[in-house]
Specification:
The protein has nine helices and eleven strands. It is of the alpha/beta class. The chain has three domains: 53 residues, no CATH class; 97 residues, Rossmann fold (3-Layer(aba) Sandwich), CATH 3.40.50.2000; 109 residues, Glycogen Phosphorylase B (Rossmann fold, 3-Layer(aba) Sandwich), CATH 3.40.50.2000. Strand 4, helix 2 and strand 5 form a beta-alpha-beta unit. Helix 1 packs parallel to helix 2. It is globular and about 60 Å long.
Length: 278
């Protein structure tokens, strides 16, 4: 069930649990436009939480952005509830490495905000041990740190035949398929993907990119301008299709720039799906 409320919030239910969604546009590359979108999201979320949802026993917020940790703390204070801040990415490190944030005063302000979020929230939950080590080095005690890796629904995500409806619909049955599924953002190394696609364009190899994000339009334009007919840039797909999408490839890849690597040390391209038997 889903219904619209004043064009800004959506209501749905997940296995009987009420869920309010804040509507946001797809992220673009302009920093200030994205900042305004985040401010709108924060304000709407805060007002909706207080006025629509009411007091809760616990508040859980997941990054990015870093500022969502302020919202979790405020709601925790408002309701007298513990607040949990999940660290899915280390900020502001990523923004600084990307060059999105350059001014020393802004960097200093974000570093202060990071310390504030870590200090004020009841529990900090990084998704990896490496994140935990980084946060601990910034003065957060072990008693506040609890690593919970991201998980997968093994009932939904399961091995399926290489020949399936998605592969047939997109003409992926006869070629070797390299798949990326996820955010088409600033930290992915799309230049290397395009270089590989251009170098291999005369071979029976297709590159399939599923998702959306700040660089989707740029990537789509590059594919068209370079005449890369064996590169398919698809938008977001229904979650239920992901098992078919994963099964449709011979190899999956996560191409990362130097700034997108976990430790910022070097570019990486990680194969995530071994070639199935055809």
């Amino acid at each position: 069930m889903q219904r619209r409320w004043v064009g800004l919030l959506y209501y749905s239910e997940c296995e009987g649990i009420p869920v309010w969604h804040v509507r946001l546009p797809i992220k673009g590359q302009r920093v200030w436009a994205r900042a305004l979108d985040y401010i709108r999201f924060h304000l709407l979320s805060l007002v909706a939480s207080i006025c629509t949802i009411g007091p809760q026993d616990i508040v859980i917020a997941t990054s990015p952005p870093l500022t969502i940790g302020v919202m979790s703390w405020l709601l925790g204070v408002r309701w007298g509830a513990p607040s949990v801040y999940k660290v899915a990415e280390i900020y502001p490190d990523l923004a600084i490495r990307q060059g999105v944030v350059r001014h020393p005063a802004l960097i200093a302000a974000m570093r202060w905000l990071e310390r504030f979020v870590y200090a004020r929230n009841t529990m900090i939950v990084p998704i990896a041990e490496q994140f935990k080590r980084t946060i601990r080095e910034r003065g957060v005690p072990d008693r506040k740190l609890w690593v919970i890796p991201d998980f997968v629904d093994t009932e939904l995500y399961r091995p399926l035949p290489r020949a399936n409806a998605f592969a047939e619909e997109h003409g992926l049955l006869n070629d070797f398929v390299v798949l990326y599924g996820g955010n088409i953002g600033l930290v992915q190394d799309w230049e290397s993907v395009l270089f590989a696609a251009e170098a291999l364009k005369d071979l029976p190899i297709q590159f399939v990119i599923v998702g959306d994000g700040a660089r989707r339009q740029w990537l789509t334009d590059e594919v068209r301008q370079r005449g890369l007919h064996k590169v398919k840039v698809l938008g977001y797909q229904p979650k239920e299709l992901m098992p078919q999408i994963n099964a449709s490839c011979d190899i999956g890849t996560i191409p990362m720039t130097r700034t997108g690597a976990l430790d910022g040390s070097r570019p990486r391209s990680i194969p995530i799906w071994p070639p199935p038997s055809r």
